[in-house]
Design goal:
Helix content is 32%, strand content 20%. The protein is α/β, with parallel strands linked by helices and 201 residues long. The protein binds guanosine-5'-triphosphate and magnesium ion. Guanosine-5'-triphosphate binds next to helix 1.
Amino acid sequence: MLIKSVEFVTSAVRSSQFPAAVLPEFAFAGRSNVGKSSLINTLVNRKKLVKTSRTPGKTRLINFFCVNDSLMFVDLPGYGYARVSESERRSWQPMIEGYLAGRESLRAVIVILDVRRTPGGEEIQLLQWLEQRGITAVLVVTKSDKLSKAAQKKQIQIIADTLAADPEEMLVFSAKSREGWDALWNAIVSLAQAPPEDEPA
Ligand code: GTP
Ligand code: MG
């Protein structure tokens, strides 16, 4: 994949603020601090396109980015972060679900998992929620640089078992070493080219 251009489009909290749903769109979802924003920066070869932070809860709005004038990437706020205020947390779920459920151009949700962590109820619920709505999920296990190859393999099996997923279908990624860059781009490009599921091919 050759990255020719990347532009920040807009930040939004509700559908009236979303850009027109005309380009194939990919949303990046996962727990706070899992590395969603870093993964997007790595994919588009930019260090600081999207703000990242050591402190969970950095991304608070739905941020849209246009890549090569042909794809839309959407950085979502993370879930499962206890330290944000209760009122803020209550507003997140409807915001994210409102986006995911109603977005016609959405081709897949890239669900990002930390290689070191066994997924919990939030991940299981998100995957079930996506499946019920016929939204494709691409599972990406990130921060692979934090574990040895042997430890990664073991951990990926645990993650797959927890999510009832096929370990072979999970993409291994690192924003630090850039492992998985080609594989994730290949997955995104082929989903972008495939006709949307609800239309005849
Ligand atoms: P929120 O917006 O708060 O939900 O977080 P996020 O999921 O966008 O995470 P972000 O990209 O801001 O990264 C969180 C922290 O993890 C930062 O300190 C990153 O530098 C670090 N990080 C992200 N990806 C990787 C990775 O692949 N390897 C390593 N070693 N660190 C990473
Ligand atoms: Mg973020």
